[in-house]
Amino acid sequence: MNFFKRTNKPDDADDTALLNSYRGSGNLSVLGSLYEKYASIVYGVCLKYLPNEDAAKDAVMAIFEELITKAKQHDIKQFRSWLYVLSRNYCLMQLRSAKKVDTVNLDDFMEFTPVLHPDNEYSEEHIKALERCMDKLPGAQKESVNQFYLQQKCYKEITEATGYTLNEVKSYIQNGKRNLKICLEKNSE
């Protein structure tokens, strides 16, 4: 099967017939015939979003694998348009998952440096001060800061766990971080 060369002009009626045939029989060669008509479009989308040709070719194959199950699950009116969106979303998800999230030490991020114990660990005094300051934060800030820094959850996980909007979570973390910094600076004086 040559996924990178378009062989004929697509026809929506043929697409619907092939899609229905695949849904009824589960025959992968029928789905392959349908996919082959649009593989050059899928490849073009992948080239647009992904960093190199090899990644784009791998994505074309992976999208076909996704298509095996998703073609049965979704109500597809226009296969070509639906496949384009599926391909674009797949590529965007690949880009998102490829991004490396650097973990940042809470102290570095908050731009304050508590006096460290000689053995480079926080003293019990500093830990207690941080706990006291955390307890002084308003509920939403405390919860968001705790989940983001201590439980190492991402914004999306926090929004799902708390019901707060993404902007609220970002705001609670930013304000909580600022309030912690102020509180800890007061305690160190």
From TrEMBL:
The keyword rRNA processing does not apply. Keywords: DNA-binding, Sigma factor, Transcription, Transcription regulation. It comes from the Bacteria. InterPro entries: RNA_pol_sigma-70-like, RNA_pol_sigma-70_dom, RNA_pol_sigma70_r2, RNA_pol_sigma70_r4_t2, RNA_pol_sigma_r2, RNA_pol_sigma_r3/r4-like, WH-like_DNA-bd_sf. The keyword Transcription applies. Coiled coil: none annotated. SUPFAM superfamilies: Sigma2 domain of RNA polymerase sigma factors, Sigma3 and sigma4 domains of RNA polymerase sigma factors. Residues 34-100 form the RNA polymerase sigma-70 region domain. Pfam families: Sigma70_r2 (PF04542), Sigma70_r4_2 (PF08281). Gene3D superfamilies: 1.10.1740.10, Winged helix-like DNA-binding domain superfamily/Winged helix DNA-binding domain (1.10.10.10). Residues 128-180 form the RNA polymerase sigma factor 70 region 4 type domain. Belongs to the sigma-70 factor family. ECF subfamily. PANTHER family: RNA POLYMERASE ECF-TYPE SIGMA FACTO, RNA POLYMERASE SIGMA FACTOR HI_1459-RELATED. This is Sigma-70 family RNA polymerase sigma factor. It comes from Mucilaginibacter gynuensis.
